[in-house]
Amino acid sequence: MQNAIEQTSTAWRGRLELDFARSNNKTVIARRSHVGPLTIQRPFYPEADVCHSYILHPPGGVVGGDELQLSVVVQTGAHALITTPASAKFYRSEGAIAKQQQTLHVADNAVLEYLPQDTILFDACRVETRTRIELSAGARFAGWEILCQGRPASGEKFHHGQCRQVYEMYRDGHPLVIERMHLQGNTLMQSAKWGLANYPVLGTMLVSDANAQMLELARKITVESAALFSASLLNGVLVCRYLGAQGMEARDCFARVWAAIRPAWIGREACRPRIWDT
């Protein structure tokens, strides 16, 4: 494993590469390599054979000019669940762009559940984030991305921030879902009914290999607040949306969908990562 730290000026370059493989009736981390402030905690096995892993970013936040790269490969027959112990944070920038790139490859008869905590976009941040999910013919994926604009609990709104987000899923090179979004603070999109309707938190959840039964299970999920939630089926992918006021509520909403559909999806009850409750 590589432990070198790579830093240019005051900007950090963090890279983490993980390969999950099936070995002795369970999934293990067959290879890992990291550069800079991005690493992984020792895996857990609350489901005996599924590898639960927590990605760590010790600095706690990302500033303009920083670049984070995550590459995950789940080999044939393996099953990995990945989450994070806390919210990701992108701090205000004087002009430099913070970049995050995530590439997730899932092989035949493999499963990847990528369930990170939310991402907080501080006011005046400048961010580009890109997630590309590559599935082989028999691969399965479930995951979400949640963006919190500003810090509503602290009274900070997203007046001057910018975030470009790309979220893509492919099957054998053919696109299933391609989304591109440009968030710009203090624009009509923030307040208009056709936009974000003044909600600061938005999230998208994708589950491959979904069907009508799973769609109906997802549509039974409700939220107690005034948040908006929807579920649809697109090219065999369950697409869930959240628009509301709290990142924690968004994660819990998606987690309830995940718990409801997992038995029908892969024949397993949901096993909630214990880090979520600490």
Q: Secondary-structure blueprint of this entry?
A:
Blueprint: E1 6-8, E2 11-23, E3 26-35, E4 39-40, E5 51-56, E6 67-74, E7 79-83, E8 88-90, E9 98-106, E10 111-114, E11 119-121, E12 126-135, E13 140-149, E14 162-171, E15 174-184, H1 188-191, E16 201-207, H2 212-219, E17 228-234, E18 237-244, H3 247-266
Parallel strand pairs: 2-6, 5-7, 6-9, 7-10, 8-11, 9-12, 10-13, 11-13, 12-14
Antiparallel strand pairs: 1-2, 2-3, 4-5, 13-16, 14-15, 16-18, 17-18
Helix pairs in contact: 2-3
Please sum up the structure shown.
Helices cover 12% and strands 46% of the residues.
What does this structure look like?
The protein is mainly β. It has a domain at 6-192. Helix content is 12%, strand content 46%. The protein contains three helices and 18 strands. The protein has helices spanning 188-191, 212-219, 247-266, and strands at 6-8, 11-23, 26-35, 39-40, 51-56, 67-74, 79-83, 88-90, 98-106, 111-114, 119-121, 126-135, 140-149, 162-171, 174-184, 201-207, 228-234, 237-244. Strands 4, 5, 7, 8, 10, 11, 13, 16, 17 and 18 form a ten-stranded mixed beta sheet that branches. A hairpin with a 2-residue loop joins strand 1 and strand 2. Helix 2 runs antiparallel to helix 3 (247-266). The longest helix is centred in the last third of the chain and has 20 residues, at 247-266. The two termini are 29 Å apart. The model is unreliable at 1-9 (pLDDT under 50).
